Amino acid sequence: MERPSLEFNLPDTHEEGKLYIVDSLNNLNKLNICPDEAQLSLDEEENTGGTGERMAGSNTRNQCLFFVTFILILIISLALVSFVMFLILQTRSEVDQISSRLLSEKKNIEELKKINNIILKHLNQSGIKE
């Protein structure tokens, strides 16, 4: 048993007629529903591509917003990195100052030890006992 094919070969004129009728009904609906000012905007949408132009404008606006946000993030990141580098340099200079102070104090302590040893030797040689 062979099943008959479910495909129909309709002539193109029939489909074009349906499209013409639907388009005409849409135009009639626009005339009945929309006031004159709204009709002008609808006609402009049809001529310019309607939502396509709005989507293109929105897409351009989104790209512009993305680039502005990206540039702001880069500037903020640069400022933060610069601040961190400034803090690192400031800390390094403070550490250098502290280490130089420690070295000078170490020298002073060594000198005091030498003076203490000299005094003890002098006291031992002079024979002063407590």
Automatic annotation (TrEMBL):
It comes from the Eukaryota. It holds the Pfam family DUF4577. The chain crosses the membrane at residues 64-89. Keywords: Membrane, Transmembrane, Transmembrane helix. InterPro entries: DUF4577. PANTHER family: LEUCINE-RICH SINGLE-PASS MEMBRANE PROTEIN 1. This is LSME1 protein. It comes from Mystacornis crossleyi.
